[in-house]
């Protein structure tokens, strides 16, 4: 893991690149990005603020809820999560991945194929999920029979825009200097 001094949004993301673990494919090239403190969690409606931010930058808000408590990934869409309220510990990258604590105000870019699973959460956890325009997420769990189709789907997806700026997301992960396993 490395962090950078800036990204296209002016905030410094943490970046985590994961290898295929045999069940969860992870993304072969794009890292998970975590921006801390993107919005003020004390706003009157932080979820609406996150939805507006994502929509301005090419991501369609799709839901408000929590994070599934089982290992899963999406092969047909990249995902962005905004933590509107509460806090959680989430494992990313599969069984050999990394456990991160996230809190209100944080934003995560989760590339297609990157596994994620909520390990614990506060009772008030509220997450806003969004996907790039024109992409509908599937739900994969790491079963052998979904693997080949998932790998094809992941490889076919274009790089998405930065959910904080709308600029090419490559600027954020290049600035973050993602290299190696998270």
In short:
By secondary structure, the chain is α+β, with helices and mostly antiparallel strands. It is built from 3 helices and 10 strands, in the order βββαβββββββαα. The longest helix is centred in the N-terminal third of the chain and has 11 residues, at 46-56.
How would you sum up this structure, described in words?
The structure is a single chain. With 182 residues, the protein is of the alpha+beta class. It has one domain (2-176): Jelly Rolls (Sandwich). It is built from three helices and ten strands. The chain has helices at residues 46-56, 147-156, 170-176; strands at 2-3, 14-16, 32-35, 59-65, 79-85, 87-92, 98-103, 107-110, 116-121, 126-132. The chain has a seven-stranded antiparallel β-sheet, with helices on one face. A hairpin with a 5-residue loop joins strand 6 and strand 7 (98-103). The longest helix has 11 residues, at 46-56. The chain starts with a strand and ends in a 6-residue tail after the last helix.
What is the count of distinct domains?
A: 1
**What is the overall silhouette?**
globular
CATH architecture: Sandwich
CATH class: Mainly Beta
Query: According to CATH, what is the topology?
Result: Jelly Rolls
Number of strands: 10
């Amino acid at each position: 893991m490395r962090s950078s001094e800036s990204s296209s949004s002016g905030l410094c993301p943490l970046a985590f690149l994961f290898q295929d673990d045999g069940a969860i494919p992870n993304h072969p090239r794009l890292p998970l990005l975590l921006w801390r403190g993107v919005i003020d969690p004390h706003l009157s409606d932080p979820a609406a603020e996150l939805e507006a931010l994502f929509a301005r930058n090419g991501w369609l808000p799709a839901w408000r809820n929590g994070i599934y408590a089982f290992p899963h990934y999406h092969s047909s869409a990249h995902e962005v999560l905004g933590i509107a309220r509460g806090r959680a510990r989430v494992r990313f990258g599969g069984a050999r991945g990394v456990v991160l604590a996230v809190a209100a105000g944080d934003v995560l870019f989760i590339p297609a194929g990157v596994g994620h699973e909520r390990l614990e959460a506060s009772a008030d956890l509220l997450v806003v999920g969004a996907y790039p325009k024109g992409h509908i997420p599937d739900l994969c769990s790491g079963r052998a029979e979904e693997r080949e189709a998932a790998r094809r789907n992941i490889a076919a997806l274009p790089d998405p825009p930065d959910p904080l700026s709308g600029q090419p997301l490559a600027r954020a992960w290049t600035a973050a200097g993602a290299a190696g396993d998270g």
